[in-house]
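Researcher: We're reviewing a set of sequences before deciding which ones to prioritize for further study. For each one, I'd like a predicted 3D structure that I can look through quickly. This is Transposase. If possible, include the structure in C-alpha cell form so it fits the rest of the review sheet.
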Amino acid sequence: MWVKIADQILESIAHYCVRINDSGH
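Model: Here's the predicted structure for Transposase, in C-alpha cell form for your review sheet.
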C-alpha cells in the first residue's frame, strides 16, 4: 500500500518540479 502511495507522490513531485523549471525561466 505505502509503496504505491509513495510512487504516486514521487511522480506528482517530479511533474511539479518539471512544471516549475519550465515556467521558472
